[in-house]
Amino acid sequence: MDGWLELLSTIEKGSENGPPDRGCRILFSDLLPDRGKLDERKLVGGELVVARCDPAALGNRLRSSYHLPTAKAGRAMSEGHWQLEGSAAELFQRYLVPAITLKWAEDLVRRAQLRTGELVLDVACGTGVVARLAATKVRPGQVTGLDLNAGMLAVARSLPNDGAPINWTQGSALDMPFPSGHFDVVLCQQGLQFFPNQPGALRELHRVLREGGRAALSVYSPIERTPGANAFVQALDQVLGPEASRIKRGEHSFANRGQLESLLRDAGFGAVVVSTVQQTIAFPSVLDYVRFQIVATPMAMLLKDKTEPEREAIMSSVASTAATLSTPSMLDGGKFAFPQEAYVAIASPF
Question: Which of 11, 65, 120, 325 is the most exposed place for a label (fewest CB within 10 A)?
């Protein structure tokens, strides 16, 4: 199934040259014998493509036709290091979620104090780690995951859910497709700093919350408070130029807790409590951290015009430079481990 999930999410996401033919439907039979019946999945709607071949062969054909990235063969782990297999959204889910995002999700959901039967909205849900955790807490309630990125949502839909039903919705945090006062709880993990209109997004969060509801959200603190990320951005700028780290630095755009609190109060939230929280982040090596920061995030654009050997050489150079900017304790045992800091807010609308 992994080959199909990669292919489907990549096709749904489209490519830099535009999406595949409108209306691409893949019908696969004789591919999943354990299913015992025909399995079909509508991607966009319209034309019909019947696949009775090896998934890898079909994948290569479609990737070639639509100028999609070439899939890499190999195991997920090789000599303890992570491999570049899958779409950006899948790589994000496979590696960055367990290493970073899951830890913050567990903390955010715990602080939100979710209760059974509640209606929960996860804004900027990505591949759905927060939404799935919330779903285990509110059953028989319901969770809605909202994200603008179709590729992230494709991965979110493909993953198992052991909790309350989750409705995955594509849409903008600046204009949510939900009625006012609809949700008991709104969650937003590491999304606010990326919204082009932060006050507007927070007003939308406020609008969709019911009276007596609550919001829980997190943003990273200044990058200097997260030494691994700080070493990485300095290395990026040294290797690729002074603007190379702009996207990564944007993750850490909040200067202090007061900035987040003021934005929430200005959006109409009454009781606001902002805490400074640290998690310990660990990767198998500096190179693994660099690779997946680049290929599984919007920073992939930095290397989009490079050949494969050029990309590998650049990432190795960034990793080597980042290592020289790291303390010995961060590199202990050949790994890359460091504290990561964020501001976590709990707010009520009235």
Answer: 65
